[in-house]
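hey so i finally got around to running the thing on that chain from the lab meeting. sorry it took forever, my laptop kept dying and i had to restart like 3 times. anyway pasting the input first so we r on the same page abt which one it is
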Amino acid sequence: MDNVNLAPENNGAAQEHGYLMAYDKKEQKAKGVKGIAANGELETLDAGEADKGQFIKVDQRGNFFTNFGKNFLYQYNNPGRYSLYNIPKETPVEQAKEKIEAAQLPQNEAVRKELASARVYNNHRYNEREINWEQAARYGITPDVLKNSKDSLERMLQGKSSAVAFHIAKPSELGRESGDAKLSLFRDENGAVKFDIHYIRQAPKVGEDYRGYTLTEDDLKTLNQTGNLGKTVDMVIDYRTKETKPCYLSKDPVTNELFHMPVEQARVPCKVKDYTLSPSEYEAALRGEEVPIRFKSNNGNYYTTSIQMSAAERGVEFLWERSTKKMEEGQKQEQQQKSNGEQQVNGPVQPAGKPLKKEEASRQAEKKTRTRKPSITPKM
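ok and heres what got predicted. didnt touch it at all, straight out
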């Protein structure tokens, strides 16, 4: 959920704020990050002050000064091996190295907390290089279509569905099957990354079963209003073993598809922008409840909205116009607005093209006379 903005190296207006270091879990030592090799592996240097000038630089907003631009994290091929850190430029490299390596030891909880705000997360579940573009071409989708459709490719690499619905023309035994659908990625039993098609479908109904949970009238009202259930419920996460776990439940407003995410996979931030959640607000967010907040954006303006855990977004999201709660005045005064140490959440999706309107989506769902094969949901 941590958003690291990536910027070209030639941005002279921005000011250097820090440099990028990594902890190599294989070699168990901290290193400076120079770039990315052709095979997608990080190019690292020994953590020494003499090589500091070659480390990737970071500005005050977390932007990387690198000719890789946005492709830096797209091409980052082995996130499991490294932990990334944005180190303030005034910090000596040797000191940063000692802290990063100390933070890996179980007994050094205080050091881990100190470095928490410096962590840089690559929240991609897939690598762009793994995408089967030949399969996409059979559906009438090209790389440019996804890259130019309001962060659709970025969302898909994170394990989410595309920001907008596309018109899909898919070969079938009867010719070409077509319809409007969102896209996502999943990994098949052989480890290959493939496209999943999420067609527009009829809205869920009262009494409908979803993974062992029966939807109520109040559930559907809440899902239609905020997109999220607002609480956790027990659901079947493995049909083979019938194992159930507490989960969040959300609904896509365009396709009407339901999504679930086990609570144990939730990562709730203690800080959203410059707003620090109180312990009670943090617990409420963890329970899936709507939490009203007020924060200062990068442009200096203040905004009031709510955040909530979303299974569809696989993390906390801003509700904006879907918000049903307002912040109390006393709550506003208790919070001290701070501009440093930002930790962002994903904002609302603003489709680049013309998204399908709800009434249009409903009409298309009503017209469907055949039952579609359920989409393959990426394994949690």
